[in-house]
Amino acid sequence: MNEKEFQIYRERAEGFLERLKNEFFYETVDLQAEVFHSVDPVPWAKRLEGSYVPAAEGDCWGGLWESAWFHITGKVPEAWAGEPVWFKLELGGEILIFDDGGVPFCGLTNTSVFAANYRKNLLEFTPKAQGGETVDFYAEVGGNGLLGDEITPGTDWRCEVGDIRHLKMGRFNVEAWNLANDFEVLLSLLRTLPEKSYRAVQLNMALNEAVSAYADDPANAAAARSCVAPQLAMRATDSALSTAAVGHAHIDTGWLWPVRETIRKCARTFSSQLYNLERYPDYVFGASQPQLYAFVKEHYPELYAKIREAVKSGRWELQGGMWVEADCNIISGESMVRQFLAGKNFYMDEFGMDVRNLWLPDVFGYSAAMPQIIRKAGCDWFLTQKISWSQFNKFPYHTFHWRGIDGTEVLTHFPPEDNYNSALKPEQLNYAVNNFNENYFLPEFITLFGVGDGGGGPRPEHIEHGLRTADLEGCPRVRFDRADAFFARLAEHAGELPEWAGELYLELHRGTLTTQARTKRNNRKCEQMLAQTEFICSVLPAADYPAETLDRLWKVLLINQFHDIIPGSSIRKVYEVTEAEHAMILAECENLVRSAAAKLTAPDGDALTVVNTLSYDYTRAVALPEEWASHRITDGAGRELLTQAGENGVWVLGEFPPQSVTTLYRGEAVEAFLPEADDSLVLENDLVRYEFDADARLVAAFDKTTGRDVVAGAAANLLALYVDQPNKWDAWDVDFTYVDTPPAYAKGVKAFRSESGPVRQALTFELTVGRSAIRQQVVLTENSKRLDFNTEVDWKERHRMLRVAFPTTVRAEEAYCDIQYGFVRRTTARNTSWDFARFEVAAHRYVDISDACGGAALLNDSKYGYRLDAGTLDLNLLRSPTYPDSEADQGTHFFTYSFLPHAGGLCGSEVMQEAACLNRAPAVLPGKGTFALPCRVAGGEGVSLEVVKKAEKSDALVIRVVETDGRRSTAVLDFARGTKLVETNLLEWTEEGELPIVDGSVELTLRPFEIRTFLVR
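and the corresponding structure tokens:
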């Protein structure tokens, strides 16, 4: 057979398959419907409270994000007795069909503009009709596509919602449907074979014999199937690999739809998979994210009960230890711990199951701090595939030990299909076989199959594909299986696996470190406020500890750390809710602290109590109420503190020890300090001198302790506006080419000295850049080198990016970048493609570069995207993408970044202390403090007490300590109560040894970056 003949035969078979798909459903009759339209979803119990109007094909019932209840009725024709009868429903959105008892039965989705094969519009009514049966059911329809607001960027093409396209009942040709599944598998296999191979020719001719046997008559479907049956009966070779095929439905908790709609997506997806489990006895389904199960428990309790039974049977697998599939670049170390704490406790409490894997197939990079947290949260295995999306470098492994900053390792597997939405076709399966880096010694890999992102999971067709490829020549052997069983088998090969040390950096989606800046700032504020609130409330008796409230607030924060919410890649409706929820968390934490203060302080109108919950001395200025201005202020020892009037109160400069409670007293009135007139743009104290020009550029930064001008020869605080037009993923990406277009720089409008006194000095600059206005108050405190840039931006840009750069005289080959509960070293060079790909990296509170003469750090209170280039520290401040949120980041922003020159290296400097203090000021409580915090760091370096809270399941206190310097460190902890420490894991499930508290103290030694958790009893 020559090449042209082969091609014509193959195209004939492909064309036949497309025609065949329209011949399953035939001899149709219309169903009748009445529709009740509402703007917001209406639950089943209230569906009859609305007004129903007749509806038919061609009608439009509503628009995007609106909702409808359909009451659908009909009668099966008598002539259909003995025949399969199905429904074809396309009702202008995502459909959830309920049974007579109000329990979700199955979900349907009419279409998606992103992928045509996401269509699911057919549902069996009966496999064998009696004729004359009555049809009567309710269906809820959400006015959105599978992927929410499905608008294609740059076009007017979007998924039409509200349009009733199909409302039919008809006969169904099961044999023709099975023939189509045969053809789907065999044509896919054919496309993997060399065209001139005998197997390809043999298979091509068998398919064409089936086409001829069908003879354009659906009644011949069985005869056509007999033509290809021998091809499907050919067994896999002895050398074939195996794959554990896990039914999967990746449900984004929020993305192109609001979280509100995710609740219904869960019902549609989970009911559909229960439907599949009933019909396919060997099929196994798995789903992650305890938050989704909690949604179903609250809103669909009968469906939840069915899921619990399926879990108990072993055919529904609980996956992933985190509360949601969270971002892993931006969230803090403690947030990462709480994701596991909430997630695994839910699984244990609700199902009695200890889930041992972390399941994050779609997250945009993975911090090097994670292996320790994963393992100490009781998870042994980690799965993702996202690193396959990297732009420049192919990751060298699919199965390996991932080693974190502390040396902990976790067994990791990347599905080699590079996908979590497999259709179980030979093309995908064989790609995985050949792509699988460990295929020469590992016998199997994992496949995640089904419709994902917008939920749905496997359709029956996907399962049929798996049945046909279970043992098929030319394919790996497909076995429906659980992920935990696969990982247990994989662990048997642990000694043969390679290792990867350090972060799993995704060479893509770097813009997610910056987009939706308000959400990122408020997340940081909530993380800090929740930790501080727990510290203070831990002083209360256990009965008064607000455990339920704090649990609820943490879970609100955790859901908003989902990997399309906090990265900034969701629609506006998502962020409207997120911003409101963040504000609620902060307000409720303030109420909890205020309530605790009422029980812990003695009323005194001339006293305030300052509570420092950090493990560092807080030596910054503390803001007090304006009625304390022009008064002498002393501490508990009678020492008078430096004070200075501010815009809305008074600044006081004191020294507040780690985890301390200090009462300040207001004394007699004193004359206000009158500063001398000074119009210079210089900020100076005994430690440092900073000089600025009228454009707010830092032109000199002389560190008096090292004798070094840290910015000599180059201006710093360069506020630059770049064109930001990524090639593909607008909200997600920053392309390296942004530097090729010269930026616009901020220009000064006004500059003046705004504060001067014994506590702090400040210059204020009013600037413009592009269409935006910037106001910066640059502050230097009397006892510190830290230079704060308190910034307000009225942001009016589109596809622009605001960055600030600090070129320095420091020459370092590596930068130290703050991450969750530790730091990583990253190169500042571009020697390799791996270095080049990291042109934008994630860091939290600081990035530091140091050389033999000292160093410089760039700190921040809410930013995450840094560029490291030799001696320049460059921070991404704001972006302005227009998809998927056309108004992303528009409006007013507040943030602070700080420049800090220092002597010595990072760990011998004040960088960590200043970064911590920038992000968490002490709490100031009314009245006289009559209490002490339960625990404090009393001595030693390199150990931080990060958490003090009530235990999850008892009245004991929990403390969490972290080694911060990357070396073996020892510290002394003092306790206000308790007789012993019992070491436990991050979940507080284990007891791993005791340490006595002797004379109120315990000495602890920690390994580099070690996290240790204790119960205080």
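(Above: one complete record from the training split.) The longest strand covers residues 891-902.
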